[in-house]
Design a protein that fits this description.
Order of helices and strands: H
Strand content: under 5%
Radius of gyration: 27 Å
Largest sheet: none
Oligomer: single chain
Distance between the termini: 85 Å
Number of strands: 0
Shape: rod-shaped
Length: 49
Amino acid sequence: MHRFLSRTVILLALLGGVALIQGCGNKGPLYLPSPPPQQQGAEPADNNQ
């Protein structure tokens, strides 16, 4: 019984390690998304008079 439990623990540890290595499934290098384009228009009027 002890041998069966030991094999089960090792198997679960290996499967857990593989799951951690797999991550979320994104392939390739990490990247930062490009910033959103800024709107070009008239600047808001300053009404602090």
